[in-house]
Amino acid sequence: MSPLQIFKLAEENKIILFTDEVENALKNSVLKNRKVCVISVAGIFRQGKSFVLNFFLHFLKKKIQKIEKWIDPDDKLFLGFSWKSTTEGITEGILMWPEIFLTETESNDEIAIILMDTQGTADHTTSGTQSASLFALSVLISSVQIYNVKNHLNTDHLKNLQVFTGYGGTYCENSPEKPFQKLVILVRDWEYPFEYDYGFEGGKMLLETVFRKHRESQQEELTTIQETIEENFEQVGCFLMPHPGKEVATNPNFDGDFDCVDDEFLGCVETFVETILAPENVVPKKINGEFVTVQGLLELIKMYGNHFKEGKQLNVKTIYAATAEAYHQECLNQAVDEFSKQVEQCDSFLKADEEKMKILQNFETKVSKMGTKKMIRRCKERLKQTLNGVFEKHRPRFEEQGLRNFCKKVFSYTTGSST
Ligand code: GDP
Ligand code: MG
Known about the structure:
Elements: E1 4-9, E2 15-17, H1 19-26, E3 36-43, H2 49-64, E4 93-96, E5 101-104, E6 110-119, H3 130-141, E7 144-150, H4 155-169, E8 180-188, H5 200-217, H6 225-232, E9 233-240, H7 246-250, H8 263-276, E10 286-287, E11 290-291, H9 294-309, H10 316-345, H11 349-367, H12 373-415
Parallel strand pairs: 3-6, 3-7, 7-8, 8-9
Antiparallel strand pairs: 1-2, 1-4, 4-6, 5-6, 10-11
Helix pairs in contact: 1-9, 2-8, 3-4, 4-6, 9-10, 10-11, 10-12, 11-12
Bound molecules: guanosine-5'-diphosphate (GDP) and magnesium ion.
């Protein structure tokens, strides 16, 4: 098994979307109606993103096998997302692991986990570059965005984040909901544990310091980086990770042997993965406050893919339109599923019609939260037609039931029976 390419960068600023493979993985999955948590790692190339993502994969694989001690010195790291020791031949794009895992949440719900790796080569500093588009796509699609940086965290890193999240922010401007769920800044090869300790606590203190420094240094800007990031993400965290050791960093033949990785790193990466995937922390993807299913995620990927494929630059209007379209499609799918289930229980036209009305009403409240009036009207029309189609399939059954009820009534009338 190997990772699937979802998006790939091509010439002239185009982003190619690979629909078939993604459809196979998402649409045909038995988990297609589950809520989904998408964990995506993004950042500059050659800074250990794929390496750390493999720890998530390793954890989830061991969990299926019910192996609790998932990091064993005698074992090797599962190499799902390959890492390269050269800078050559890296495809820029977004990859996805084809297996979808299930994990429990605090409310005993089971939720699908999808892992995504963003491979960029350049620094994501200017909003117009392709790498920036990739990063923005990663943020838009994921529910846990891990932003990987090396050695230190500075205002430039945060300014980049501000640019990407700014795009998202606008689509929820009139909504009380924040557009994105969780941001975790992961600082690799952290060198000052005596100042801020490894882990989430040290990370939190470092992040507060960087935010404060930026606040103090700025004079005219009205919105601080902190405000933008906090307005856009429901949760923001930072984790300080130690160096993995010389073997990992420099040996081109390193093959994932845990024995060759520094214990301190292993201890920290264990905490990192276990904390993010803990039942009380696992974060489902939402659009406008509504949960997205695995199938809905496919819609989202397709909508964004279509907007970028012509080489269009990222812009707030198209992102808003793509998100709203995917959101409408998800609401529509859910309404059709719901009606298909309900109509099975109905034994008359009247009952089924009542159900249809209820579902339409509920749907209307939901879709009206996003999109232009025209889009909303189109979507409502589409739902009506689809529901009518479902209704028609049941027509013969209702007619038969109606006839039976009618005969029963006639029979009771002619025989004087009260039943
Ligand atoms: P990516 O391009 O960001 O996905 O980076 P990779 O995961 O492919 O790793 C690039 C190189 O850095 C590989 O040789 C890894 O063995 C090494 N590496 C992985 N994690 C770390 C880390 O935390 N620190 C250092 N210094 N090197 C790492
Ligand atoms: Mg990589």
